[in-house]
Amino acid sequence: MSTSVAGVDDVTASEPSLRRFLAGLPGVDQVGAEARAATLATRSIKTTAKQQALDTAISMIDLTTLEGQDTPGKVRALSAKAMRPDPTDSSCPSAAAVCVYPDLVSAAASTVAGSGVLVASVATAFPSGRAALDVKLADTRDAIEAGADEIDMVIDRGAFLTGRYSQVHDEIVTIKAACGRPGREPAHLKVILETGELATYDNVRRASWLAMLAGADFIKTSTGKISPAATLPVALVMLEAVRDFRLATGRMVGVKPAGGIRSAKDAIRHLVVVNEVAGPEWLSSRWFRFGASSLLNDLLLQRTRMLTGRYSGPDYVTLD
């Protein structure tokens, strides 16, 4: 059921306008959202539909490594895995993207060139967002110049939680402008809300709308560095937001849950929520992603079991 959102065409970037609009968004029924997410999580998918769901989930993964010990060699290996998740089975789809720090974008970009796998890079002083705007812009431009197709930026949660909505809005607008690539489509901008720090579903809804009003191509739950990260009720609230934003403006925005999604079962539960809440149009990597590292391995193991009837051990897949 859609939430009625009035006055979106009249919103400006001014603090009073943003504050008035965001305060006027309908509140989230916490009990209802959690109950609906729990109900949808019990949906059972079998046989052919499950095989399709596993392949769909694989094709939506942003295969991610964001560790201080990352090296060009590790990123090249991860990029090769993104292109051919199961080297023994050419029918297995590739992942959607590889997500790395800006200084490792070139290693990923050179590896996946021509494959269709995208390169995403975290930027804007990830994961804290605690840096001056010129530093965040330099971070973004470095990633773009190195070959990033997508930028995953973090919002200033301190500014959002203290009601400085225009600051958050304007920063997103500025970073999006820095995503331009001469002669090519601009890099897509994913805006990380860090929902674990937003505390309430109402804040998740407001932050989602704020990011979309500022031009986000995707809204993303988490950096993966804060707990809780992605949860099914939070994904549901964000999917409601993109659905209602499209109804109000005609523009589709993607959703990316990230952090803590490790099993095929969890991934399929998210796909059910996508279908039931936002609609089947969001069931593609153009509009829905999983930010994950270990999830791919479990999807591959489950996929092999569905195809062969045998469950392979963990040594069947590479450790990332």
Backbone shape? globular
Radius of gyration, rounded? 19 Å
> Oligomer, anyone?
single chain
Distance between the termini: 40 Å
Q: Class, according to the CATH hierarchy?
A: Alpha Beta
Helix and strand content put the structural class at alpha/beta
Strand percent estimate: 5-15%
> Quick one: how many beta strands?
8
CATH topology: TIM Barrel
**Order of secondary-structure elements:** HHHEHEHEHEHHEHEHEHEH
Discrete helix count: 12
Biggest sheet strand order reads 7-6-5-4-3-2-1-8
Helical residue percent band: 40-55%
CATH architecture: Alpha-Beta Barrel
Largest sheet: 8 strands, parallel
Q: Return the domain count.
A: 1
Enumerate the spans where pLDDT stays under 50 for 5 or more consecutive residues: none
Q: On the 0-100 scale, what is the average pLDDT?
A: 95
Q: Spell out the CATH superfamily.
A: Aldolase class I
Summarize the structure.
45% of the residues lie in helices and 10% in strands. It is of the alpha/beta class and 320 residues long. The chain has an eight-stranded parallel beta sheet with strand order 7-6-5-4-3-2-1-8.
What key attributes describe this structure?
TIM Barrel, alpha/beta, 8 strands, 320 residues, eight-stranded parallel sheet
